[in-house]
């Protein structure tokens, strides 16, 4: 019987004929947009159980010293972050963790106040930063990204280039993180590098 080994592969690994390869694209000066895959972050869905919203918020505060957002916001403590995904729903992000380890940590901390589902292999997290990042994303984002309307800590679920995206603004630089279904991640990256091309773009793949 033939044996085989499964190897974890980035959903953003592009064929050689696709213009979404790591490196420098477009522009003549320093890149105005920097794109990087965040393969070192675990992604889990957290869903509050019926009647347990208050207990869940208290558990998050106790375990992570972090306020659970109850509106379209993003909040974290540098190790664990929560992005509001709808009433009673969040994406939990664990820095430098695997999906199973993050899910286990969350279940232990939240108990029966929430259901936790590891989404790490189904979602790809892309970080977009640089002085022209807002302008590049504005070519496809259907909401107002002006700092007065969408600033650090803001989050939204929307459609960008026909792809469902849950994203949030990390800081005022500006830097954004975008969570995309892994099956659409490469085609989304192609759109993103094309949108950023006029500003000069540097794409850094995961290790």
Textual characterization of the structure:
The chain is 22% helix and 34% strand. It is α+β, with helices and mostly antiparallel strands. Strands 1-12-2-8-11-10-9 form a 7-stranded mixed sheet. A 5-stranded antiparallel sheet has the order 4-5-6-3-7. A hairpin with a 2-residue loop joins strand 9 and strand 10 (163-171). The two termini are 33 Å apart.
Quick one: overall form?
globular
Widest beta sheet: strand line-up: 1-12-2-8-11-10-9
Low-confidence residue ranges: none
| Content of β-strand | 25-35%
- Report how far apart the termini are: 33 Å
| Highest CATH level, the class of the largest domain | Alpha Beta
**Structural class designation:** alpha+beta
Count of all domains: 2
User: What is the average of the pLDDT values?
Assistant: 90
Q: What is the string of helix and strand elements?
A: EEEHEEEHEEHEEEHE
Helix content: 10-25%
Count the strands? 12
**What is the CATH architecture assignment of the largest domain?**
2-Layer Sandwich
CATH superfamily membership of the largest domain? Probable tRNA modification gtpase trme, domain 1
Major sheet size, sense and barrel closure: 7 strands, mixed
Quick recap of the structure?
The protein has 207 residues and is α+β, with helices and mostly antiparallel strands. The protein has helices at 53-64, 99-110, 133-138, 182-196; strands at 23-25, 33-37, 41-48, 74-76, 80-86, 89-95, 114-118, 123-129, 155-160, 163-171, 175-181, 201-204.
């Amino acid at each position: 019987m033939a044996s085989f080994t499964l190897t974890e592969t980035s959903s953003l690994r592009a064929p050689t004929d696709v213009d979404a390869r790591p490196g420098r694209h477009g522009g003549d000066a320093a890149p105005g947009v920097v794109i990087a895959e965040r393969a070192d972050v675990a992604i889990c869905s957290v869903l509050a159980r019926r009647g347990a919203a208050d207990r869940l918020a208290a558990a998050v505060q106790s375990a992570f010293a972090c306020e659970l957002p109850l509106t379209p916001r993003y909040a974290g403590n540098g190790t664990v972050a929560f992005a509001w995904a709808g009433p009673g729903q969040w994406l939990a992000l664990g820095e430098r963790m695997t999906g199973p380890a993050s899910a286990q940590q969350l279940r232990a901390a939240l108990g029966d106040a929430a259901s936790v589902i590891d989404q790490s292999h189904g979602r790809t997290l892309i970080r977009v930063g640089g002085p022209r990042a807002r302008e590049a994303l504005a070519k496809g984002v259907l909401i107002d990204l002006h700092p007065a309307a969408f600033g650090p800590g803001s989050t939204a679920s929307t459609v960008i280039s026909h792809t469902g995206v849950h994203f949030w603004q990390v800081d005022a630089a500006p830097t954004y993180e975008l969570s995309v279904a892994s099956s659409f991640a490469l085609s989304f990256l192609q759109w993103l590098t094309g949108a950023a091309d006029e500003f000069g773009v540097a794409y850094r793949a995961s290790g």
